[in-house]
Amino acid sequence: QLRVVESGGDLVQPGGSLRLSCAASKVALDYYAIGWFRQVPGKENEEVSCIRTDRSTTFSDSVKGRFTISKDSAKNTVYLEMNSLSPEDTAVYYCAARLGWHCPTANIYTIWGQGTQVTVSS
Fold this sequence. Notes:
mainly beta; 7-stranded mixed β-sheet; 4-stranded antiparallel β-sheet; 11 strands; 49% strand
């Protein structure tokens, strides 16, 4: 079964950039829709972005124009490039996978990583 592991979280200053990675093992990512979510204590899990099997993408309004998502099939990895970061982007970021083209809501995803912490602070 597919497993995903996030990495790349860090402490960064406002206005800075980070690239998160979602690396998959055992099964090719190309057959899965991959979503990025973020969680802040006390708040609902927020979908940030998703990349479908045809590489079409979605972004939440809060990150549109600042974040990009991409997939490297050779490395079996999906990346979330985050620019112009602000303290409001501070959260634990998770990637999730679901077999098929569609980017579903969070409760439909069946495979989740352990998360990576992103902190934006001066």
